[in-house]
Design goal:
- It is built from eight helices and 18 strands.
- With about 300 residues, the protein is α+β, with helices and mostly antiparallel strands.
- The termini are far apart.
């Protein structure tokens, strides 16, 4: 009977040892160390259980352990680091699975989410937020990818992190759009501080907005209305490229648009509705002298007139 195989520890944890193997192992010195390691995993206490430190301390204790002189000693050292690695992975999985909240929307979908502090987040199509539910009430930090409107409950500092920079507020209402190295923020209530990754910073008051430039500057904008228009089923644009416009059409209608030889760097100012694709295409492309052709319900091709 070979007890030195690398799968022995797994069989012990699963309870698959024979009676002879189990008795021999439980009377061995190494059993004490591994028993303590498994206790640490079962508890899943934070900070992370230090497997190697505890194992070394247990080995010192084992030197004074007096077992039966006839007991067969099972050597488990070949499994030590594998076991420790598995345990640390399990702890890591527990931390991510049980504390990280990830909310996302699909193409042509919007969603309203209530945060632990009762702040509301409305996600536009193809967007996501992520936060740590265990620490959120303390630090109020959330990660955003895509576009969302925030109605923040009054309280401590609230931070929206994006790949292009951070938006910091107290209780307020604001909209953030962040995609493909582009950042746009609108303030509808209260004050909003925008810090981008180029060390540019600006404080927005109601009716003011900002968007990032290709050179990393934050360009000021004036806005109208009490809410972003997309909350009411209409996407509005002010001096955006045709490429940005097409990307938003694809998100809102879950379609694919083939631009062919169209100049996608052209600038567009206008809007389109979310509930009528034919009307949306006419609104966007007819003023720019661009024809569109349906290849099927999901694929559209553009051509210059």
């Amino acid at each position: 009977m070979d007890m030195d195989k690398d799968n022995f520890l797994g069989r012990w944890i699963a309870g698959d040892l024979s009676e002879e193997e189990r008795e021999a192992f439980e009377n061995s010195k190494d059993h004490l160390a591994y028993k303590d390691i498994i206790r640490g995993v079962d508890k899943f206490q934070q900070p992370i259980f230090d497997v190697e430190k505890n194992f070394k301390e247990q080995l010192k204790y084992n030197q004074t352990y007096k077992g039966s002189s006839t007991t067969k000693v099972i050597k488990l050292k070949t499994w030590l680091y594998s076991a420790a690695a598995v345990i640390l992975v399990l702890i890591g999985i527990k931390t991510v699975y049980f504390t990280s909240i990830d909310i996302h929307t699909s193409m042509a979908e919007t969603k309203v989410w209530t945060l632990p502090d009762n702040s509301l987040v409305t996600l536009n199509a193809d967007s996501s937020i992520e936060y740590d539910k265990d620490s959120f009430l303390k630090d109020r930090v959330i990660q955003l990818n895509g576009e969302a409107f925030f109605d923040v409950a009054k309280g401590s500092k609230f931070t929206v992190k994006t790949d292009q920079g951070n938006i910091i507020v107290l209780g307020t209402e604001f909209n953030v759009f962040t995609r493909d190295h582009f950042l746009e923020v609108y303030c509808f209530e209260g004050k909003v501080q925008v810090n981008n990754n180029k060390n540019a910073s600006i404080v927005l008051t109601p009716g003011k907005g900002v968007k990032s430039s290709d050179k990393g500057a934050l360009l000021p904008l004036d806005i109208k209305g009490k809410k972003p228009t997309w909350l009411n089923g209409k996407s509005s644009f002010k001096q955006v490229t045709l490429l940005q416009l097409i990307a938003e059409l694809e998100r809102q209608y879950d379609i694919n648009i083939n631009t062919n030889n169209i100049d996608v760097k052209r600038i567009f100012t206008g809007f389109f509705v979310h509930n009528d694709l034919e009307k949306a295409l006419k609104t966007c492309f007819e003023p720019m002298n661009i024809n569109y052709v349906f290849k099927n319900t999901k694929n559209i091709e553009l051509k210059n007139k």
